[in-house]
Amino acid sequence: xxxxxSNTSLIxxxxxxxxxxxxxxxxxxxxxxxxxxGKVTVxxxxxxxxxxxxxxxxxxxxxxxxxxxxxxxGEAVSRVQNEMGKPQADFLMGxxxxxxxxxxxxxxxxxxxxxxxxxIPDNMKDKDGAWTGFYLNPIAIGINEKRWKEKYGxxxxxxxxxxxxxxxxxxxxxxxxxxxxGTSYTAVASLAQVWGKDEMLKYMTQLLPxxxxxxxxxxxxxxxxGKGEYTIGITFLGDQIxxxxxxxxxxxxxxxxxxxxxxxxxxxxxxxxxAAAKKLMDYMLTKEPGMIYTQSAxxxxxxxxxxxxxxxxxxxxxxxxxTYSLWTAAEQRKALQDAxxxxx
Length: 344
Description:
There is one protein chain. The protein has about 350 residues and is α/β, with parallel strands linked by helices. It has helices at about 1-30, 50-60, 75-80, 95-105, 145-150, 180-195, 195-205, 220-225, 235-245, 275-285, 285-295, 325-340; strands at about 40-45, 65-70, 90-95, 110, 130-145, 175, 210-215, 230-235, 250-255, 260-270, 300. The chain has twelve helices and eleven strands. Strands 1, 2, 3, 4, 5, 6, 7, 8, 9, 10 and 11 form an eleven-stranded mixed sheet that branches. Helix 3 (about 75-80) packs parallel to helix 4 (about 95-105), helix 4 crosses helix 12 and helix 6 crosses helix 12.
């Protein structure tokens, strides 16, 4: 009788253990409401490999799957605005915060103040929670040292934006299109704030003959300069350091009047899975994603707890435009982009 009772107890205990284990995994998957269910759809201005690294970590931690579409920031802004009647995305990952400001004013973003944003400085996040900063990255002049020596010998590198107007650089500079690229828009918006709109437009008119191309993507000019297709790429500093660390002979100069990007994160209003988007925002504002991203993109985190990555550059040590206003850049975006489209 005692043995029978013992066996019954053992069976009951085994059943309880199985139920608890099954319950745990069902909880993790969201069956009992313990976790958000479904999939989060992300429009990423980050390079796709960096976005996927972060989203895979998020998926492992939360059980929430994802879809990601990589877009230049200008295209991402247009897409979110065009889809406002029926949003297709839940989350906007990266891109200059002035782009997010444009979407906020259009009513396209969900206000959400993550509890993990409390240590981010006020000038690097929207006070209403429409977007939250994630990283900092100044504009820089990137130069292929090997091609420079072949073409210009021991001549000094350009130290200012106006140095790039030298006729010897005809066809030797790559700069993305400010109409589609947040990178180039940051550059011209800062020049407009420092010099005035008319002087900036005059400068861009004079620079055009020296441009080899104006691709849509902000990183492309330094990738091509790194390969030796031309000598100079005007991009964000982090992209240049990344290309350099891939074995390319790149030297970077952050000139005076260089604007900088506060790379933002935002939740799309009325997206298919807002609950999952909030979970993603909370996750992105923890230390681990900041470490992962800055070590890959060589940018600087807005969170004090995330150190400057090895091989990265502290923006405070450069000549970047400390008076640059992303809010002014957002207000002037349409007017400046329309004026730039007319340049030939």
